[in-house]
């Protein structure tokens, strides 16, 4: 006995814990964005805390739901008319006699089930002022913790009836879907039952009024086979199918008793069923909450999606976030390259010019010999001959100067000037530029090697071999310095042309970048919306599973 009580307490604790989590889920939801799900979660929590089994009867209004429930209970608690009966959900449970009507504006009204049932039935068909009708009645197959829910017909033209049915399904642990014998293969039956099965609900089909069957037109086994095949075609696997007739209880195909016995078995499995279906219902309510958030965000989402449609760019589908991200990355890379393009080009040209000048050899042995002769002629006291020495000395100085100039000019022309002009002339082509004036300016560049230049490089000192070599090095460096100055001036012209072209390209690119950044921002906002919605669902999942 102790073990049994311990087990019961453990199960009770489980249900209490689950109910606490459902209530916590409800309180965590922002009601301004979803005013329906918190209430449903609280209803589910109350049902869970009481371990209440709810068996919902759904189907067409003409399928005989109310009559079936009255027959099962053995008490005519529900109105049975050839018109849509319940306009809202009617709950019938076991327990002491009581009847309550939950209204939208006037609170809870109470009635005596024995003396005021007709008045109560009037409220059952009033969908405008009544939210919920509940009847407790003893002596039926129902226990105090077991309820039958009679829902409005799903084929009703009144949208409020459909809402009432759908709003009660989260509380249903089992769904009995009833159909008129002649309307089994209506598309609405398939759609509704598939929705229920997709939500994990146990669904039993009841084909009622089989007394309408005419055997000589089609044998009953073939009829049953056609029903099963029709649901299988829709990929619907009901938990059971029962064929019933209340008008002809003795009909040989009537499975009313089997159906009633099945309900009794379900009632005996109350705790097991409630444990599973409550969790499934909570999972579905989480999905409903996420959908509610999506509806709340729909206006903003639609506005941003419309903006995506308006933004047009060649080669980019603005609706595709991956394409936009890739195009933006490429455009930003291109802009970065353009921003540093001119400076990189300048450094490249200066480097190539420097390499050319460094590798150009302007002085050879002949140059050294001519330089030594030239330097000797520059010494004080230098003179030639005895007679007419002044004239001969000047002539010799002139000859030695011309010899050095000729040697330097020859070496410079062959080893530097030609290569200098070839290099500088090709610089614009490296950057896809064309400028004939620049080309002409390159080939018109002239670096004069003058007597004044030779004299400017002379330094005082003894006329040694080392002195001569240093003098030749200074001549070479001086000539290269002039070529460097001219080259840098030409490079500046190329740089200016490149800057002008780059500015044009960047101006065009900036507009593309502006549009891409706007598109990326919109996709970021859309992603943030989706992530917020997803996070809300994940938060509720964490509460449901871990209480966190």
From TrEMBL:
Pfam families: Dynamin_N
Annotated Dynamin N-terminal domain residues: 55-208
Transmembrane segments: none
BP terms from Gene Ontology: mitochondrial fusion
GO MF annotations in UniProt: GTP binding; GTPase activity
Coiled coil start-end: none
InterPro entries: Dynamin_N, Mitofusin_fam, P-loop_NTPase
Family matches, as PANTHER family: SARCALUMENIN, TRANSMEMBRANE GTPASE FZO1
Designated name of the protein: Dynamin family protein
């Amino acid at each position: 006995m102790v073990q049994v009580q311990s087990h019961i307490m453990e199960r009770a604790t489980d249900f209490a814990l689950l109910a606490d989590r459902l209530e916590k889920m409800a309180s965590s939801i922002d009601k301004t964005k979803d005013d329906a799900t918190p209430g449903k979660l609280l209803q589910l929590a109350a049902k869970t805390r009481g371990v209440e089994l709810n068996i919902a009867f759904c189907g067409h209004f003409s399928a005989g739901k109310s009559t079936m429930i009255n027959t099962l209970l053995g008490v005519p608690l529900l109105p049975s008319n050839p018109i849509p009966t319940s306009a809202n959900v009617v709950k019938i449970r076991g327990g002491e006699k009581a009847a309550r009507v939950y209204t939208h504006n006037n609170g809870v009204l109470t009635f005596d089930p024995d003396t005021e049932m007709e008045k109560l039935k009037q409220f059952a068909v009033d969908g405008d002022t009544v939210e919920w009708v509940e009847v407790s009645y003893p002596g039926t197959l129902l226990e105090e913790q077991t309820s039958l829910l009679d829902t409005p017909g799903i084929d009703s033209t009144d949208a409020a009836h459909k809402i009432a049915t759908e709003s009660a399904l989260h509380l249903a642990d089992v769904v009995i879907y009833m159909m008129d014998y002649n309307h089994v293969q209506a598309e609405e039956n398939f759609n509704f039952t598939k929705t229920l099965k997709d939500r994990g609900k146990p669904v039993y089909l009841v084909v009622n009024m089989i007394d309408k069957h005419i055997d000589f037109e089609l044998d009953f086994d073939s009829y049953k086979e056609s029903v099963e095949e029709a649901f299988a075609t829709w990929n619907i696997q009901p938990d059971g199918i029962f064929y019933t007739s209340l008008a002809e209880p003795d009909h040989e195909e009537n499975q009313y008793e089997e159906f009633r016995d099945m309900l009794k078995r379900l009632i005996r499995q109350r705790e097991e069923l409630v444990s599973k279906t409550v969790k499934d219902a909570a999972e579905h309510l989480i999905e409903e909450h996420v959908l509610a958030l999506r509806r709340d965000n729909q206006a903003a989402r639609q506005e941003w999606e419309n903006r995506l449609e308006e933004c047009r760019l060649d080669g980019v589908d603005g609706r595709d976030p991956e394409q936009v991200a890739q195009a933006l990355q490429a455009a930003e890379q291109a802009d970065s390259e353009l921003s540093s393009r001119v400076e990189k080009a300048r450094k490249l040209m200066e480097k190539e010019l420097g390499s050319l000048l460094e590798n150009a050899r302007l002085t050879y042995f002949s140059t050294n010999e001519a330089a030594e002769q030239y330097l000797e002629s520059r010494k004080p006291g230098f003179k030639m001959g005895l007679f007419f020495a002044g004239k001969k000395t000047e002539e010799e100085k002139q000859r030695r100067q011309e010899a050095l100039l000729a040697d330097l000019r020859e070496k410079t022309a062959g080893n530097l000037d030609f290569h200098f002009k070839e290099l500088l002339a090709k610089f614009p082509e490296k950057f896809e530029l064309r400028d004939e004036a620049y080309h002409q300016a390159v080939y018109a560049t002239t670096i004069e090697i003058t007597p004044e230049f030779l004299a400017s490089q002379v330094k005082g000192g003894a006329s040694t071999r080392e002195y001569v070599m240093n003098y030749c090095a200074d001549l070479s460096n001086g000539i290269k310095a002039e070529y460097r100055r001219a080259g840098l001036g030409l490079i500046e012209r190329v740089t200016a042309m490149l800057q002008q072209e780059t500015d044009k390209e960047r101006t065009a690119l900036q507009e593309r970048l502006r549009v891409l950044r706007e598109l990326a921002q919109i996709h970021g906002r859309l992603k943030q919306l989706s992530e917020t919605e997803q996070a809300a669902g994940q938060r509720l999942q964490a509460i449901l599973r871990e209480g966190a």
